[in-house]
TrEMBL record:
<dbReference type="GO" id="GO:0008080">
    <property type="term" value="F:N-acetyltransferase activity"/>
</dbReference>
<dbReference type="GO" id="GO:0005737">
    <property type="term" value="C:cytoplasm"/>
</dbReference>
<dbReference type="InterPro" id="IPR016181">
    <property type="entry name" value="Acyl_CoA_acyltransferase"/>
</dbReference>
<dbReference type="InterPro" id="IPR000182">
    <property type="entry name" value="GNAT_dom"/>
</dbReference>
<dbReference type="Pfam" id="PF00583">
    <property type="entry name" value="Acetyltransf_1"/>
</dbReference>
<protein>
    <recommendedName>
        <fullName>N-acetyltransferase domain-containing protein</fullName>
    </recommendedName>
</protein>
<feature type="domain" description="N-acetyltransferase">
    <location>
        <begin position="17"/>
        <end position="169"/>
    </location>
</feature>
<dbReference type="InterPro" id="IPR039840">
    <property type="entry name" value="NAA80"/>
</dbReference>
<dbReference type="GO" id="GO:1905502">
    <property type="term" value="F:acetyl-CoA binding"/>
</dbReference>
Length: 172
């Protein structure tokens, strides 16, 4: 998979892979996430090590680099106990120097395919503080805050976040 490019020499081969199948990428992934939201190495490692085939799952978008594989983006999908047909995109981060190049769009497309086609989920939820326009371009719509914790549906009243969702495409 490759994003649109203006010149042949800028074409890169990107892969979106689950981190639990590529443990060698954990350190790079932790550095990337911590560049946006600093937290202890141990806490990040624990979170990434919880990734599995079902939920939660952490994905990384990689590209071949001169010195091996480079992690350019990360996203974590978490279950919503009160809604087994939905998933919460807990975090999405793209390396600062690679933003605006279609990498986030590519990562989200692969996540949506995974959720809707492989996991057969009906809805994807996410929250964002400053990327509403990006997600709206991908087809996400505004919604009320949801609780991603526990088994009872209860609203989250965070005033900084905008909550959004996308339904699975209708199959005909």
């Amino acid at each position: 998979m490759t994003p649109p490019s203006s010149s042949p020499e800028s074409i890169e081969a990107f892969k979106v892979v689950p981190i639990h199948k590529h443990r060698e990428l954990m350190d790079q992934c932790i550095a990337l996430i911590n560049s946006e939201w600093p937290r202890s190495y141990t806490a990040r490692l624990w979170s990434l090590e919880s990734s599995k085939e079902t939920l939660p799952t952490s994905f990384v978008l990689t590209a071949d680099a001169k010195n091996g594989v480079a992690v350019l983006a990360h996203a974590k999908l978490s279950p919503i106990p009160a809604d087994r047909e939905a998933v919460f995109v807990e975090s999405v981060v793209v390396a600062r120097e690679r933003r605006g190049q279609g990498i986030g769009r590519l990562l989200m497309r692969e996540i949506e395919n995974h959720c809707f086609q492989k996991l057969h989920l009906k809805k994807i939820y996410l929250s964002t503080i400053d990327q509403q326009a990006f997600y709206a371009k991908l087809g996400y719509k505004l919604c009320s805050a949801i609780s991603i914790f526990g088994s009872r549906p209860a609203t989250n009243t965070s005033t900084k976040k905008t909550w959004m969702f996308k339904n699975a495409p209708c199959s005909s």
